[in-house]
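Slide 14.
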Amino acid sequence: MTLTCAPPAAFPAPKNHSQAVAGLKHSDPAIRAEAVAWLAENGTLSDQPLLVRRLRDDNEFVRGYAEQALWLLWTRSGDAAVDKLMAQGIMHMQASRYAEAIATFGEIIRRKPAFAEGWNKRATAYFLAGEMRKSLADCDEVMKRNPQHFGALAGYGQIYVNLEEYDKAIAYFRRAVAVNPNLTNLEQVISELEEMERKKRGRAI
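Slide 15: predicted structure.
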Protein backbone atom coordinates (compact mmCIF):
# COMPACT_ATOMS: atom_id res chain seq x y z
CA MET A 1 0.00 0.00 0.00
CA THR A 2 1.27 3.46 -0.86
CA LEU A 3 -0.04 6.99 -0.50
CA THR A 4 -0.16 9.20 -3.57
CA CYS A 5 -1.07 12.85 -3.43
CA ALA A 6 -1.15 15.65 -5.98
CA PRO A 7 0.83 15.49 -9.25
CA PRO A 8 4.55 16.14 -8.62
CA ALA A 9 4.60 18.98 -11.16
CA ALA A 10 2.12 20.93 -9.07
CA PHE A 11 3.29 19.92 -5.60
CA PRO A 12 6.86 18.55 -5.54
CA ALA A 13 7.25 15.69 -3.07
CA PRO A 14 9.83 16.09 -0.30
CA LYS A 15 13.31 14.85 -1.18
CA ASN A 16 14.37 14.02 2.37
CA HIS A 17 13.22 13.77 5.96
CA SER A 18 13.91 17.41 6.78
CA GLN A 19 11.78 18.61 3.87
CA ALA A 20 8.96 16.26 4.89
CA VAL A 21 8.97 17.50 8.47
CA ALA A 22 8.94 21.11 7.26
CA GLY A 23 6.14 20.29 4.82
CA LEU A 24 3.89 19.11 7.64
CA LYS A 25 3.60 22.72 8.80
CA HIS A 26 2.99 24.27 5.37
CA SER A 27 -0.13 26.39 4.90
CA ASP A 28 -1.09 24.43 1.75
CA PRO A 29 -2.88 21.17 2.67
CA ALA A 30 -1.67 19.49 -0.53
CA ILE A 31 1.94 20.01 0.54
CA ARG A 32 1.14 18.76 4.04
CA ALA A 33 -0.40 15.66 2.45
CA GLU A 34 2.74 15.10 0.36
CA ALA A 35 4.81 15.34 3.54
CA VAL A 36 2.58 12.78 5.25
CA ALA A 37 2.91 10.46 2.24
CA TRP A 38 6.70 10.75 2.30
CA LEU A 39 6.85 9.83 5.99
CA ALA A 40 4.45 6.94 5.40
CA GLU A 41 6.86 5.46 2.87
CA ASN A 42 10.21 6.46 4.36
CA GLY A 43 9.67 7.31 8.00
CA THR A 44 10.29 5.30 11.16
CA LEU A 45 8.39 4.85 14.38
CA SER A 46 10.16 7.93 15.73
CA ASP A 47 8.03 9.93 13.28
CA GLN A 48 4.81 8.69 14.85
CA PRO A 49 4.25 11.83 17.01
CA LEU A 50 4.44 14.01 13.88
CA LEU A 51 1.76 11.94 12.15
CA VAL A 52 -0.42 11.70 15.25
CA ARG A 53 -0.55 15.49 15.32
CA ARG A 54 -1.77 15.49 11.70
CA LEU A 55 -4.79 13.46 12.86
CA ARG A 56 -6.02 16.88 14.03
CA ASP A 57 -5.14 18.71 10.83
CA ASP A 58 -7.59 21.39 9.66
CA ASN A 59 -7.94 19.54 6.35
CA GLU A 60 -10.01 16.34 6.20
CA PHE A 61 -7.88 14.99 3.34
CA VAL A 62 -4.68 15.38 5.36
CA ARG A 63 -6.29 13.78 8.42
CA GLY A 64 -7.27 10.74 6.39
CA TYR A 65 -3.77 10.44 4.95
CA ALA A 66 -2.27 10.68 8.42
CA GLU A 67 -4.40 7.79 9.64
CA GLN A 68 -3.38 5.62 6.67
CA ALA A 69 0.24 6.69 7.11
CA LEU A 70 0.30 5.55 10.71
CA TRP A 71 -0.97 2.11 9.74
CA LEU A 72 1.76 1.89 7.08
CA LEU A 73 4.38 2.97 9.61
CA TRP A 74 3.19 0.45 12.19
CA THR A 75 3.09 -2.45 9.71
CA ARG A 76 6.64 -1.92 8.46
CA SER A 77 9.00 -3.98 10.63
CA GLY A 78 12.30 -3.10 8.95
CA ASP A 79 12.90 -6.80 8.25
CA ALA A 80 11.91 -8.13 4.81
CA ALA A 81 11.38 -11.67 6.11
CA VAL A 82 9.12 -10.45 8.91
CA ASP A 83 7.19 -8.23 6.50
CA LYS A 84 6.62 -11.29 4.28
CA LEU A 85 5.28 -13.21 7.27
CA MET A 86 2.99 -10.28 8.08
CA ALA A 87 1.51 -10.44 4.59
CA GLN A 88 1.00 -14.19 4.94
CA GLY A 89 -0.67 -13.83 8.33
CA ILE A 90 -3.03 -11.17 7.02
CA MET A 91 -3.94 -13.44 4.10
CA HIS A 92 -4.69 -16.26 6.54
CA MET A 93 -6.97 -13.95 8.55
CA GLN A 94 -8.79 -12.77 5.44
CA ALA A 95 -9.37 -16.42 4.51
CA SER A 96 -10.71 -17.15 8.05
CA ARG A 97 -7.76 -19.50 8.67
CA TYR A 98 -7.28 -18.19 12.17
CA ALA A 99 -5.11 -20.98 13.60
CA GLU A 100 -2.61 -20.44 10.77
CA ALA A 101 -2.76 -16.67 11.26
CA ILE A 102 -2.13 -17.02 14.98
CA ALA A 103 0.83 -19.31 14.33
CA THR A 104 2.28 -16.94 11.72
CA PHE A 105 1.96 -13.87 13.93
CA GLY A 106 3.40 -15.91 16.80
CA GLU A 107 6.49 -16.55 14.70
CA ILE A 108 6.78 -12.81 14.02
CA ILE A 109 6.60 -12.16 17.76
CA ARG A 110 9.28 -14.82 18.38
CA ARG A 111 11.58 -13.22 15.82
CA LYS A 112 10.87 -9.59 16.64
CA PRO A 113 9.21 -9.22 20.07
CA ALA A 114 9.64 -5.43 20.10
CA PHE A 115 7.50 -5.11 16.93
CA ALA A 116 4.15 -3.91 18.28
CA GLU A 117 2.17 -4.70 15.13
CA GLY A 118 3.02 -8.40 15.38
CA TRP A 119 1.23 -8.44 18.73
CA ASN A 120 -1.63 -6.35 17.39
CA LYS A 121 -2.24 -8.64 14.43
CA ARG A 122 -2.19 -11.72 16.65
CA ALA A 123 -4.63 -9.98 19.00
CA THR A 124 -6.93 -9.48 16.01
CA ALA A 125 -6.59 -13.13 14.98
CA TYR A 126 -7.35 -14.29 18.52
CA PHE A 127 -10.40 -12.01 18.56
CA LEU A 128 -11.70 -13.42 15.29
CA ALA A 129 -11.11 -16.94 16.63
CA GLY A 130 -13.19 -16.13 19.72
CA GLU A 131 -10.21 -16.19 22.11
CA MET A 132 -11.04 -12.97 23.94
CA ARG A 133 -8.72 -13.32 26.93
CA LYS A 134 -5.73 -14.15 24.73
CA SER A 135 -6.62 -11.19 22.53
CA LEU A 136 -6.67 -8.93 25.59
CA ALA A 137 -3.24 -10.20 26.65
CA ASP A 138 -1.78 -9.37 23.24
CA CYS A 139 -3.40 -5.91 23.30
CA ASP A 140 -1.58 -5.35 26.60
CA GLU A 141 1.69 -6.14 24.82
CA VAL A 142 0.84 -3.64 22.06
CA MET A 143 0.26 -0.91 24.64
CA LYS A 144 3.62 -1.60 26.28
CA ARG A 145 5.28 -0.89 22.94
CA ASN A 146 2.96 1.71 21.39
CA PRO A 147 0.52 3.42 23.79
CA GLN A 148 -0.89 5.56 20.96
CA HIS A 149 -2.00 2.61 18.84
CA PHE A 150 -5.61 3.63 18.36
CA GLY A 151 -6.33 0.38 16.54
CA ALA A 152 -5.42 -1.67 19.60
CA LEU A 153 -7.34 0.71 21.87
CA ALA A 154 -10.44 0.23 19.72
CA GLY A 155 -9.68 -3.50 19.75
CA TYR A 156 -9.90 -3.53 23.55
CA GLY A 157 -13.31 -1.91 23.20
CA GLN A 158 -14.54 -4.57 20.80
CA ILE A 159 -13.31 -7.35 23.07
CA TYR A 160 -15.05 -5.89 26.10
CA VAL A 161 -18.27 -5.50 24.11
CA ASN A 162 -18.11 -9.23 23.40
CA LEU A 163 -17.50 -9.89 27.09
CA GLU A 164 -20.46 -7.60 27.91
CA GLU A 165 -18.20 -5.42 30.07
CA TYR A 166 -19.61 -2.25 28.58
CA ASP A 167 -18.03 0.20 31.03
CA LYS A 168 -14.55 -1.00 30.05
CA ALA A 169 -15.49 -0.96 26.35
CA ILE A 170 -16.61 2.66 26.66
CA ALA A 171 -13.38 3.65 28.42
CA TYR A 172 -11.19 2.14 25.71
CA PHE A 173 -13.25 3.51 22.84
CA ARG A 174 -12.89 6.95 24.40
CA ARG A 175 -9.13 6.48 24.63
CA ALA A 176 -9.05 5.51 20.95
CA VAL A 177 -10.97 8.64 19.98
CA ALA A 178 -8.69 10.76 22.19
CA VAL A 179 -5.73 9.64 20.07
CA ASN A 180 -7.57 9.67 16.74
CA PRO A 181 -10.61 11.99 16.72
CA ASN A 182 -11.41 10.86 13.17
CA LEU A 183 -12.89 7.63 14.55
CA THR A 184 -16.26 9.36 14.53
CA ASN A 185 -18.17 6.08 14.21
CA LEU A 186 -17.10 5.27 17.75
CA GLU A 187 -19.06 8.23 19.14
CA GLN A 188 -22.34 6.54 18.21
CA VAL A 189 -21.06 3.21 19.51
CA ILE A 190 -20.15 4.83 22.84
CA SER A 191 -23.61 6.38 23.09
CA GLU A 192 -25.29 3.01 22.45
CA LEU A 193 -23.05 1.26 24.96
CA GLU A 194 -23.80 3.86 27.63
CA GLU A 195 -27.50 3.10 27.17
CA MET A 196 -26.83 -0.65 27.35
CA GLU A 197 -24.80 -0.16 30.52
CA ARG A 198 -27.65 1.83 32.11
CA LYS A 199 -30.10 -0.98 31.31
CA LYS A 200 -27.68 -3.56 32.63
CA ARG A 201 -27.35 -1.71 35.92
CA GLY A 202 -31.11 -1.30 36.09
CA ARG A 203 -31.62 -5.05 35.86
CA ALA A 204 -29.09 -5.57 38.64
CA ILE A 205 -31.03 -3.38 41.10
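Speaker note: Confidence is low (pLDDT under 50) at residues 1-10.
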